[in-house]
Amino acid sequence: MATANADAAEVERLYELGDRLSSAKDKSQHAADYEAIIASVKGQNVKAKQLAAQLIPRYFRSFPALGTFAMEAMFDLVEMEELAIRIQAIRGFPLLGKDAEFISKIADILGQLLTSEENVERDAVHKALMSLIRQDVKNSLQPLFKHVESGSEIREKIICFLRDKVFPVKAELLKPQAEMERYITDLIKKSVQDVTGLEFKLFMDFLRSLSIFGDTAPRESFQELIEIIQAQADLDAQFDVSDIDHIERWTSCIYMALPIFTRGASSSKFLNYFAKQIVPVFDKIPEEKKLDLLKTVAASSPYAVAQDSRQLLPSVVQLLKKYMPGKKVDDINHNYVECLLYTFHHLAHKTPNTTNSLCGYKIVTGQPSDRLGEDFSEHYKDFIERLTGTEDTVRAASKRLTQGMADFNKAISSAKTEEEKTKIKADQQKSTMTMRSYNNILAMSQPLHGKSPLFIGDKKITLSWMEQPKKPAASTAGGKRTQPASNGNAPLNKKGRGDGGMHNQLVNRAFEGLPRGGGRGSGRGRGRGGRGRGWGYR
């Protein structure tokens, strides 16, 4: 009974101290009252502590000399076991943000509290952090990004907070726009040294949404984005065919770079890395990764400059000869051939006379590199035989596929369960994609038979896995290329630039299956430059 009376008296005393401070015209004359409120935090009275958590922030600005003392008391309050005390202290934190030093400390503490398992407490932390950020964006965000950069245990929670709360209101927070967008860009560049694939995509999508990287930005801005992606792809490292994490990272990064290539950024480092590091060991790469690699290069080839095209073409021809048979066979890896022919056309369009020595063509540009005085007839004979063998194989396979596709609708109608229908429709979709691939191969191989072929350097060909043009054009294999209305894969709902639909599909494919919320992969990767997180493909 005596303890209860003492607790009630302590609470009453705090109310009196608060009333006195509230009514005082010159609060600085009542420093002793404020000190007494702060000191009550050290006691055992729960209600008194909860009241102190309200009063300390309320009068904080009136006693700058006691600022550190008051701040330490608030930090003690958020470590209390009682939820009500913690929440009251959290709500009061934004009132303490009187200068940069205090704001950084508070943001750091609030960031650590994001790990709370109590929904009401976590909601209070979110609101307090956003209030603090609105007061001082720079000094609030810096400690949060520091946790991401350092790889602390709370980094995932902070990344989720940035994604869900901060990034959506960037227009409100980042003012003046150019200065603050540059500031947050620099924070992100430091933070992506050790991230998962999904986390990196999140940060890159945010950067691409900033005005400094917008449609009217100078070419140098897009090159800056490419350099961030190149660093993540580890292009300065020796390619290790056994390092699946690096293969996946390289593939995903170049997918991500595609829309930036369309804005004028250079694809040189990626394409040269493919030619010099990946092609020599292509046979040793796991089969399930080869197609992704070829797709990335095919999608990037329209943006290659002449010099890069000249360096990459020999590698592409080398792979074409490997996968195009010299005579008719039962079947070919049509996906590989489609990618390689598409890449070949776009590269050869930039530097046509390079194909003279590679394929035996007789293309005249008037340059010494035409090499017209040399005999490459055997190359031409071999290449044409491979084209013919490929076409014969594809026509036969296409005929068989066409006959089989006629039965799909009948099979769907006779299916007894939804599961059966779903499986049949999946098989039908796969066959449709295969037919598109066959048609593309024929459309790209036929112009290559002449001594001076016409290389396709525009968008007449849409790769089979990409979103198809909606203009219908009926056709059969061996004739004109089919252009189906849709391939069933809706593009991601993102703000695209350039070939947005292509980019969104490719990035969607690249990050398919990654955990939401920045979950880290269990693998550790190579750890170069501090990078230890797998890219989530586990």
TrEMBL record:
Keywords: Apoptosis. This is Apoptosis inhibitor 5. GO terms for biological process: regulation of programmed cell death. PANTHER family: APOPTOSIS INHIBITOR 5, APOPTOSIS INHIBITOR 5-RELATED. The lineage of its organism: Eukaryota, Viridiplantae, Streptophyta, Embryophyta, Tracheophyta. Residues 468-538 are annotated as: Disordered. GO terms for molecular function: mRNA binding. It holds the Pfam family API5. Belongs to the API5 family. GO terms for cellular component: nucleus. It comes from Aegilops tauschii subsp. strangulata (Goatgrass). It comes from the Eukaryota. SUPFAM superfamilies: ARM repeat.
